[in-house]
Amino acid sequence: MTFTLRIPGPGLFLGLVTILLACALPHNALAQQENRLLRIAVHPHQGFTRVNLSFQSPPDYTLRVLPGRVRLEVRGADSPSFKKLRALNDKRLAGITTTEVRGVLSVSIPLRVADPGVQVVSCANPSVLSLDIGPGVKRAARVDIAPGREPILSGTERFVRDFDADPGGVPFAPTDGKVLKGILPEGEALLFQQGESLLYRDRAEEAVNVFSMFTNKATAPKALACYRLGEALERLGRHQDALSYFRQGEGLWPQYLEQSPELLQPYSDALARTGNFPAARAMLLRLMERYLGTPYQAELLNRLADLTERNGQKEAALAMYRSVVVYSAGSPAAGRARLKLADRELFTLSRDRYRELLAKYQAVYQEPGDPASRDEALFKMTLLLSLYASPKEALETVVTYDRRYPRGIFSTIIKKMREEILLPVYQETAAAGNDQGLVQLALDNREYLARCFADPGFAPRVSQAFEKTGATAKELELFGYLQQKNWAAGSAPFLMARMVDDAVALGNVPLAEATARDFLARFPRDPNLGRVREQLGRLAFERGDLPGAAAQLAFLGGKGARAQLPESDYYLGKALAAAKDHGGAVRSLSRFTTAAKRDNPFLPDGYFTLATALAAGKDYQRALAACQVGGSIASGEMSGQFLYQTGELQLQLGEVRQARASWDKAAGLGGTWGRLASEALNDLNWRMKIAGQLP
């Protein structure tokens, strides 16, 4: 059952009578007024049909869902016959008939579908009653949000339902200074005023400490202190203690409530919160009578509606909110009432209808009103989009809100929503292969990536995007931030390993070495351990610390070990060759030359060092083969070096003619190795001449 109340214009006592009737009398007391059903409009939608019933004044109704039909009973109303609607052509409704018996108008709607959903939709105009009938409405009995948004719902629904927004009312009024000076010395009066200043600035806990100093004073100051303690404790949520102090104050100085009626507001809150709703309602009505015809009239009706709804009388509260919307349009109180009306639909919508509710919140936000209501409306717009809209639209809305109100009352929950919505945005962006978009997403939202790290592939995929877009420096800076976060701990080894790679690529040796050693200490068994040690080996090699390089890379000689960086076996082979470990050098360089690509700049020197190590072990045949392969890929000065070495190896194998041919070819190339080859060739010719072996 529902009804709507009028708020009188200034100076009209009739409004107060209406309010008193609404709150104090049984519901059917209002049903005696004449009403009329003026118009019925039927609007088919996908999944449901909407029936708009336009009355002369707000209806007092009961809705019944019966087998095969929906029946609406409106007390104190009549209507035309609406004969044309009896044979309605709708796939869900089989017609609409109206009958009147003993002052009760019955609107009967036979149904073509079994067990449909039925929902009453709140409108800004309380004289219009809208019924949605059909399977689409039944689906909305559950929260029909976009797939994957369940964590957002579970993280916000309880908060939003429990959120206690300020319902409005009479503002705080300090005690008259003359009254204080009449009952307290000047210094104590000033102290009491400081306590009231704290209370005005919402520093209730500090105010309690001040007012407690006056509880041992004479009757009048003690009474004032008790009233203010009750007010402060009520703000702190200590309702029972607040009620106790209010009653003490009233017992000591009951007439003061007539001098400062605004105290009835927190007093009534304390009564309601401690379970005495009838006394709370009576006290609030007493306050409303004092402010009849003022702008606070609508604010106080909102407050009464809030108390009434918390007492379980939702329909009565709904009627009061509608009255504020209609008869106090454009006021902050109307904005708060419209918010309350819209909130009734917040967690009952289906995905195809959320835009209707979004428009209601937008209207509250766009109209002038108090900042708290506009902030709340914007938050709920953001919440709706995060639950129902596409991931990118939802993220844009959440980010916009976060920028506007980074420290607002909803900021913490907005940040959690942002974390949740980033995951589907990341998944969409990655699936589309948008590497630049992934990079920007990670950089713009680095503080909110906690949920994304629940996906083990997130960090590698983002790193791949950084690599493809050439944003190495940005990756290094971002991963340096992320690896310190507890929520990224599972990916910290990967992040740090990439930091080492990036620092090496950028030539930041101190950072690369510091990060690598930190990695070795923290993750000694991580799969990325080998790669990090390879980078340390490379850095040692590049600064000429060959023993250090050999120590870091020694693990590559173990069974089953395999270098992740192509040059690691080259660095190890060179270090071992310098240490005269020719066998180890041969093994490392053999692995390198086998695995390296032909365009690897270290490959020619790898073959040459391999040949040198083989020759040192007197394996001249394999050394010669290595020289010949290396010579085939070498160019410039190094070609002469290979030819010179080839000649020496051929001479060791007794292939004199071949050696002379190699040196002769090298001499023709000129350069240092050409001169050495020419000298070796002359020396060989002289020795052969002495031995009589020249032709």
UniProtKB/TrEMBL annotation:
Signal peptide: none annotated. SUPFAM superfamilies: TPR-like (SSF48452). InterPro entries: TPR-like_helical_dom_sf, TPR_rpt. PROSITE patterns: PROKAR_LIPOPROTEIN. It comes from the Bacteria. This is Tetratricopeptide repeat protein. It comes from Geomonas paludis. The lineage of its organism: Bacteria, Pseudomonadati, Thermodesulfobacteriota, Desulfuromonadia, Geobacterales.
